[in-house]
Amino acid sequence: MISFLDLKEVNSSFRKELVDACARVIDSGWYIGGGELANFEKEFAAWCGARHCIGVANGLDALILTLRAWKLLGRLREGDEVIVPANTYIASVLAITENRLVPVLVEPEEGTFNLGAAAIEGAITERTRAILPVHLYGRLADMPGIMAVAEKYNLLVLEDSAQSHGASLDGRRAGTWGDAAGFSFYPGKNLGALGDAGAVTTSDDQLAEVLRALRNYGSHEKYKNLYQGVNSRLDEIQAAMLSVKLRHMDAHTERRREIARLYQQGIRNQAIELPLWERDEQHVFHLYVVRCKQRSALQTHLAQQGISTLIHYPIPPHKQQAYSGYANLSLPLTERIHEEVLSLPIGPTMTDDEARIVIDCCNSFMAD
Ligand SMILES: *Cc1c(COP(=O)(O)O)cnc(C)c1O
């Protein structure tokens, strides 16, 4: 039996450090907005290479609150258009509509699953004010190209970095390319808490200040409210867990890449298309996603040998009931991707032997 991602094993591998950190918080008597959060924010900002990190309750809030802060700062207005990849996880789109902004769903590049500069440029109208690129599956989008378009048309860029902790290009990590970035620390993400957590990174002092207030009822100072904020805080226990896990992140990323390398070299089947991976640093393999025209047969074949796989994602946002107004959009590439993608097991505790079993099973798959 090969599980998709064994979270229990991942967290057990530093059980003592986690338990010690937990005990430290319990014994401190301080559970919200204290030293653990300040410490993690400082460490994570430095690890990414950003000036600020603002911890929030989850990844969706990181995106929602950043767009909201830009509205408060007068940089965005209700009805403005935000370009977003059509094949993203629903949260990227929810963050836009939650702010009464208009998502413009754009087809990704076929090879990378990510937004490309040319498609973005083709979707720009006089109402476009922002781009929300998603570094899907852990692969950094073409940020040099995207930032050039943003500069040319004076657009804000919010990176959805929920799947791409540490992915980089030319030494610059996810979370430092755009004007701001939203991270998720959902337990199954590459850097995962033991519950919900998220953060925004930015090097914009003014944005950071507004976000620090917004997450805390809109208040900078107790009982004084500048904005109509929310309660979206990253609590001390989760911040302490994240500080422990951050210390192991680079090793975990390297292990994910080793598994990906085995897959890239070992899987040889005409019916299975492997992900593009040109530069090591660019991909952190949150997911290892292959394409197969006979996906359901491949998934069944793997399951028969005890190998768990998942589909990220089975239904694109514009085909969701929640967005029934978008159902008539023509996004053929996005729809094809959703019909063909399959995520193979990958994780920091997976062994070479397990990877070999997956490889053999992929190679013995016979398409009709
Ligand atoms: C997980 C995820 C989110 C949302 O993060 P949560 O912490 O679950 O709210 C947003 N965008 C993408 C691409 C994600 O994968």
Q: Tally the helices: what do you get? A: 13
Shape: globular
Number of strands: 13
Bound ligands, named by name, code or SMILES: pyridoxal-5'-phosphate
Strand order of the largest sheet: 1-9-8-5-4-2-3
Structural class: alpha/beta
Largest sheet: 7 strands, mixed
- The pLDDT mean sits at 97
Unreliable residue stretches: none
Percentage of residues in helical conformation? 25-40%
How far is the first residue's CA from the last residue's CA? 26 Å
Radius of gyration: 21 Å
Beta strand %:
5-15%
What is the N-to-C order of secondary-structure elements (H for helix, E for strand)? Answer: HHHEHEHEHEHEEEEEHEEHHEHHEH
Account of the protein in words:
The structure is a single chain. This protein has 368 residues and is an alpha/beta fold. Helices cover 39% and strands 14% of the residues. It has 13 helices and 13 strands. The protein has helices spanning 7-12, 15-28, 35-48, 59-72, 90-98, 117-123, 143-153, 205-214, 236-246, 249-266, 295-304, 332-340, 352-363, and strands at residues 52-56, 81-85, 102-106, 128-131, 156-160, 168-169, 172-173, 180-184, 198-202, 219-221, 224-225, 288-291, 341-344. Strands 1-9-8-5-4-2-3 form a seven-stranded mixed sheet, with helices on both faces. A two-stranded antiparallel ribbon has the order 6-7. Strand 10 and strand 11 (224-225) form a beta hairpin. The model has no long low-confidence stretch (mean pLDDT 97). Bound molecules: pyridoxal-5'-phosphate (PLP). Pyridoxal-5'-phosphate (PLP) binds at residues 58-60, 88-89, 91-92, 134, 160, 162-163, 184, 186, 196, 198. Pyridoxal-5'-phosphate binds next to helix 4 and helix 5.
